[in-house]
Design a protein that fits this description.
- This protein is of the alpha/beta class.
- It has 2 domains: 257 residues, NAD(P)-binding Rossmann-like Domain (Rossmann fold), CATH 3.40.50.720; 204 residues, Orthogonal Bundle (N-(1-d-carboxylethyl)-l-norvaline Dehydrogenase, domain 2), CATH 1.10.1040.
- The chain is built from 21 helices and 13 strands.
- The strands form 3 sheets. The protein has an 8-stranded mixed beta sheet with strand order 5-2-1-6-7-8-10-11, with helices on both faces. A 3-stranded mixed beta sheet has the order 4-3-9. It has a two-stranded antiparallel ribbon with strand order 12-13.
- The longest helix is centred in the middle third of the chain and has 24 residues.
- It is globular.
Amino acid sequence: MNRLSRAIKPFPKRPIKVVQFGEGNFLRAFVDPFIQTINEKGLFDGNVAVIQPMPFGRVKELEQQDGLYTLILEGLENGKVVHESKIVDVISAFIDPYQEYKAFLELATSTDITTVISNTTEAGIAYLNEEVNFTATPVSFPGKLLAFLRMRFETFAGDMGKGLDIIACELIDDNGQTLKRVLIELARSNQMSETFIHWMTTANRFYNTLVDRIVPGYPKEDAAKLEVEWGYLDHSIVKGEIFHLWVIEGEKGLNERLPFDAAGLNVYFVDYLKPYKERKVKILNGSHTAMVPVAYLAGIDTVKESVNDPLVGKFIRNYIWDEIIPTIDLPKADMDLFANAVLERYLNPFVRHELMSIALNSMSKYKSRILPSVLERLSTKAFPKLALFSLAALIVFYKGERGNEKINLKDDQHFLDLYQSLWATNDSDYVVKEILGLSHWETARLISEDVLTYVQKQVKSILENNMEVALTKLLEDTDGQH
């Protein structure tokens, strides 16, 4: 069987317009197929040059297959099971700047280049005090990008029309603007001219982004079978879920140069990213965190089983629609679409998502993902019974017992030690009062009489009955139909 290559799967030749820092699974399952989609729809005519951001990486491995690889997308979409695969063909240049620094810099001189996209891990956008020049490869991603931009500035004599769209996909807040600030600091530490810095920061456009797609990566167990089915070998297969979301914040006009939305992709070009991030954190991440202690103490082990369970599934849906959606400043129709897509992701038949894998560091997750909504609801006199029931369940969860089974708790050791000592008293009211009074929460609202009394009541209900009985009573009390 032949290895996948353009000799056996020819594809159109296109100019390289996108420089991509990063060759990992996420970009190859997210950005590159999006570029392929706008190519196929006649909205763009461009390929990608992949830059290996670290001394170790896969660019040469990708080059062995002429940049071709098979993308598998799986999941539920509009209630239907989707399993599809296609060959992605947009990567056509492969540069390891540690071995080919000159070729990397030459790429900056191309008049075809319009866009830089990066995903160099959360640690990738950070200032490193290093020398940036045209003779030695910088260590950091910002260092490499600074050298690239400096070469472009010098090649085109500061032409303001030769700036680029720079789209950061690293999972940090304000990723594009953070990258811009690091570049300015690095340029000044290298005594680069203010003329260049002005060009870098005004001719080039830096975008903040929110990206969302689960990418399991290489399907090791199924690869051999798939290769037989397809009739070719492929060492770079990548698997992702069918759901995708890309929100891009910055100067207007990018959607004309990269018309992802016009191609029907779930890509938003917005003036303000915060509500979309808030939506993801509160609905996707928050419902995960709210679900875990409730479902696990009900004897459930996975996300899919939780959503399918009559009681826990209703709890999750009511939590999202009754207590979370009202706290987010986006159109109700958009919120409903997103929330329903989240539930479809939870029901993905191709993924077994263990609750205990989500349970890691639940104390901090509750604080960042759920507590803001709790405090907002309390401030408007709308008592968040479901979210606070989840907090009660979390306190019982940290007792470390599910029936006769010991729960393998994973959190900062000081939380584990604290819960162990508190639960040793067998006084649930005392445990709740101590936990809600922790400085960890950075608010005294949780020890207000209404919240404290309610959480104490729910903890007793879970302990004295069981989770199913306590949850049934809760749902009857809230009657949270949406």
